[in-house]
Specification:
Chain B: InterPro entries: Ntn_hydrolases_N (IPR029055), Proteasome_alpha (IPR050115), Proteasome_beta4 (IPR016295), Proteasome_bsu_CS (IPR016050), Proteasome_sua/b (IPR001353), Proteasome_suB-type (IPR023333). Chain B: Pfam families: Proteasome (PF00227). Chain B: Non-catalytic component of the proteasome. The complex is a heterodimer of chains A (about 240) and B (about 240). Chain A is about 30% helix and about 30% strand. Chain A has helices at about 65-85, 90-105, 150-155, 165-180, 220-225, and strands spanning about 15-20, 25-30, 35, 40, 50, 55-60, 110-120, 120-130, 135, 140, 190-195, 195-205. The termini of chain A are far apart. Mean pLDDT of chain B is about 90; it is low at about 1-5. Chain B has 5 helices and 13 strands. In chain B, strand 2 (about 35-40) and strand 3 form a beta hairpin. The radius of gyration of chain B is 20 Å and the shape is globular. In chain B, strands 1, 4, 5, 6, 7, 8, 9 and 10 form an 8-stranded antiparallel sheet that branches. The chains are: A alpha+beta (about 240), B alpha+beta (about 240).
């Protein structure tokens, strides 16, 4: 009975995705790298996908699987909204994602973070990892890059942040993960959802804060040599 | 994101996984559940951890839930399967309530239902990857049973799942007796949970203790246990054996 029964950690999934609640709504964030093996197939992908006007999902893992699940759920939610006569709640969206993830657990390889705002519960984040467990959290992290963020969030997360604090936290976190995870990279995209609506933001890779052993990008070595800097070239 | 090959097993003895449904391995798992009978009913304890392989990923998972009026279910193993079992039980209890005949399913009946559920899935090679503990009181009768993912089921005065089988049950065998008071029962469970905290890698220090009596179910708020590290041999391991590793 030993064939494939090892209970090791499931294989890593390229990407860093984050969802954070704040006092008034949610902020979703993600990197933009899609890889095929070692090749970066798309360096500017959009991993934060719309399900309804007020609910979005961050996708990680297999691109195909996460896209299919999102498409089906968007389709179901559309019909549900028509029947209900009002916007779907975040909980319903998350449960539909769970339904597909759980019933196809043997074939799918995708971890999702559902985030949105509805008038009943306000801003909510639901994590749906591999296997189809549904878990409501004040913040959620996912994808291979998230391994590097557990310690960061243990320290930096605070209840009751403002919208700007939450967004800065998300951008910082995705940026830190990109610095260390080869499967994450590119730009940081964020989506803020609250009672007023949805705002998309874009933080290009070269505008992010520099971390340990990262250097300020230059146009050319020649600029360094020609600049009146006190540091001579060292060979 | 990875354009990996679909999740095929790495050997050729298993066919393509899309042919038939079979659960291969768990992802998000809960560790031990420990429970015992005491004077007024059942006491059950479980930590609030959801592990993802070796990562202690989720720290707020409620692994014990009330079922109907008379039962309490605790689960270890795959959390998504536990969530599915709760849905099955919701339907079962609803159906029972809709009879509106003054009768309600007791813990013995719920345990039997779960046993059939787990064993039938096992026979189809598609188990619900859980070990369950079902406790309750109905008409003064206390009941405590367990079912595993392969359908092994039994009832006893004290039960445990996972690591609890190896670490908690010996303690319970030694120290359990009939008509434990609530305080003694809680202390005994805490003794078991502390050992599990020291020795089970997937245990976390955040647990709940649940009580079920004729009056109903109470699940405590989450809390943490104090641990002891002050043995002199811990501070100076090499003292009695210089040069030891």
């Amino acid at each position: 009975m030993d064939l494939n029964m090892d209970l090791n950690a499931p294989h890593s999934m390229g990407t860093t995705i984050i969802g954070v609640t704040y006092n008034g709504g949610v902020v979703l964030g993600a990197d933009s790298r899609t890889s095929t093996g070692m090749y970066v197939a798309n360096r500017a992908s959009d991993k934060i996908t719309q399900l309804t006007d007020n609910v979005y999902v961050c996708r990680s893992g297999s691109a195909a699987d996460s896209q299919l699940v999102s498409d089906y759920v968007r389709y179901f939610l559309h019909q549900h909204t028509i029947q209900l006569g009002q916007p779907a709640t975040v909980k319903v969206a998350a449960n539909l994602i769970r339904l597909l993830s759980y019933s196809n657990k043997n074939m799918l390889e995708t971890g999702l973070i559902v985030g949105g705002w509805d008038k009943y519960e306000g801003g909510k984040i639901y994590g749906i990892p591999l296997g189809g467990t549904l878990i409501e959290q004040p913040f959620a992290i996912g994808g291979s890059g998230s391994s590097y963020l557990y310690g960061f969030f243990d320290q930096a997360w605070k209840e009751g942040m403002t919208k700007d604090e939450a967004e800065q936290l998300v951008v910082k976190a995705v940026s830190l993960a990109i610095a260390r995870d080869g499967a994450s990279g590119g730009v940081v995209r964020t989506v803020v959802i609250n009672s007023e609506g949805v705002t998309r933001n874009f933080y290009p890779g070269d505008k992010l804060q520099l971390w340990h052993e990262e250097l300020e990008p230059q146009n050319s070595l020649l600029d360094i040599l020609n600049s009146p800097s006190p540091e001579p070239m060292n060979i | 994101m990875n354009f990996m090959a679909s999740k095929q097993p790495e050997n050729f003895l298993l066919g393509p996984e899309s042919d038939s449904q079979r659960t291969l391995y768990p992802y998000v798992t809960g560790t031990s559940v420990v429970a015992l009978k005491y004077k007024d009913g059942i006491l059950m304890a479980a930590d609030m951890g959801g592990s993802y392989g070796s990562t202690l990923r989720y720290k707020n998972v409620e692994r014990m839930k009330p079922i109907g009026k008379h039962s309490l279910l605790g689960a270890s193993g795959e959390i998504s399967d536990f969530q599915e079992i709760l849905r099955y039980l919701d339907d079962l209890i609803l159906y029972d309530n809709m009879w509106d005949d003054g009768n309600s399913l007791g813990p013995k009946e719920v345990h039997n239902y779960l046993t059939r559920l787990m064993y039938n899935r096992r026979n189809k090679f598609n188990p619900l990857w859980n070990s369950l503990v079902l406790g309750g009181v109905k008409k003064g009768e206390k009941y405590l049973g367990t079912v595993s993912m392969i359908g092994v089921n039994f009832e006893d005065n004290h039960v445990a799942t996972g690591f609890g089988n190896h670490l908690a049950r010996p303690i319970l065998r030694q120290e359990w007796h009939e008509n434990l008071s609530f305080e003694d029962g809680v202390k005994l469970l805490e003794k078991c949970m502390r050992v599990l905290l020291y020795r089970d890698r997937s245990a976390i220090n955040k647990l709940q203790i649940a009580k079920i009596t004729e009056e109903g179910v109470t699940i405590s708020q989450p809390y943490s246990l104090k641990t002891y590290w002050e043995f002199s041999a811990f501070a100076n391991p090499a003292q009695g054996a210089v040069g030891t590793w």
